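batch job 7 of whatever, protein = Amino acid ABC transporter permease
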Amino acid sequence: MSERVSADRETVAPEAIRAVPVRHYGRWVAGLVILLVAVIVVHSVVTNAQMQWNVVGDYLFNPRVLRGLENTLILTAISMVIGVVGGVLLAVMRLSPNPLTSSAAALYIWLFRGTPLITQLIIWNYLALFYPRLGVGIPFGPTFVSADTNHLITPFVAALLGLGLNEAAYMAEIVRGGILSVDEGQLEAASALGMSRTQTLRRIILPQAMRVIIPPTGNETIAMLKTTSLVIVIGYFELMTSVQQIYAQNFRIAPLLIVAGLWYLLLTSILTVVQTWIEKRFSRGSASPKTTIWTARMLGFRFGSRNEGAAR
């Protein structure tokens, strides 16, 4: 008789495991409060007569505003190229076993990160006060080619030097962190295969480090887009400069500042979408089952059958 009962128990199929969501009433209340506050804020902004939305619409696509926007995009793109290329070189120098190379990179990073960007922009713009002429020649010897510094360092060049060289110092630390995140065994394996240091960096290290480098680089690009507004101190014509010139003439300060803010919001939103796409592309295959389960638990799901919960 006992053998028959045990056989019947063995043939019974186990109950399917179901994920039961945990009800968090506090989250629902918080969500309703946030939604209510959002509705109040939006209604206040839309119905506020001081915003002068009709003036905003008139100047949103103004030729001077669009020309300033174009210069802002050009500054952002070129400055980030200078920053990324310089950051990679500085990071490699910083990790070099040569003490002179490493110290030179460390000194550069210390200098450009330790002084305000607005100060650097002004110094580059008034570089002629320190060096009236710039030239190429033999140290302590004759100069082959020289030119007036005021002619060489225009406001555009000063803006690029200030933004790009400053960004290179921050990108150097980002790239260095990405390189250090790669396991040392990769270097040993590449060395065992007879690969040179340059080949190892280009084919092994950087492709794996990109997963760590991409997110902060995207953040730096978005920050650079907004940081370009600082070149107003050296008189370069960009988005904020164009808006400032217009409201200095018609005294419509509030709506024109909204125009600049809307353009910055639109561009940063586009860059955020591009950054998200790039991050997903470089992180393909990196998600593990443990990560998925951890994320589900953070969202409030419990795993296990109801019988298990009753038994506990």
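notes: The chain is about 70% helix and 5% strand.
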